[in-house]
Design a protein that fits this description.
34% of the residues lie in helices and 20% in strands. By secondary structure, the protein is an alpha+beta fold. The mean pLDDT is 89.
């Protein structure tokens, strides 16, 4: 599955989750290098998602940005590939995810 198709699935999950703030980078060429594709806020949760297609790889800038956000201890950070669809549902269902840390 390519990144566009997977991102479309993520968009649907975000809508279903009822996130209060859902920022999606429209075109990364005008964004800070490495900034995540999705930045979500709901009640006491902040989630940053980097979405990849099946063969996609994280850039060094993406890894660094996710790590900086994660180190705040206030932002859940995830890099997700199509095979992580079940995890995406858990993260985005709109409630506190029962996860053992960030990925």
């Amino acid at each position: 599955m390519n990144e566009i198709a997977f991102d479309s699935q993520i968009r649907d999950l975000v809508k279903l989750g009822g996130w209060d703030v859902a920022y999606h980078t429209f075109w990364s060429g005008h964004s800070a290098k490495g900034f995540p594709d999705w930045f979500l806020v709901r009640e006491n949760r902040i989630v940053a998602l980097e979405i990849k297609g099946t063969s996609g790889k994280l850039t060094d800038d993406q890894v660094m940005c996710l790590e900086f956000l994660r180190l705040t201890a206030k932002v859940e950070t995830y890099a997700l590939w199509p095979e992580d669809s079940d995890l995406a549902v858990e993260i985005l269902k709109g409630e506190e995810a029962n996860l053992n840390g960030n990925r």
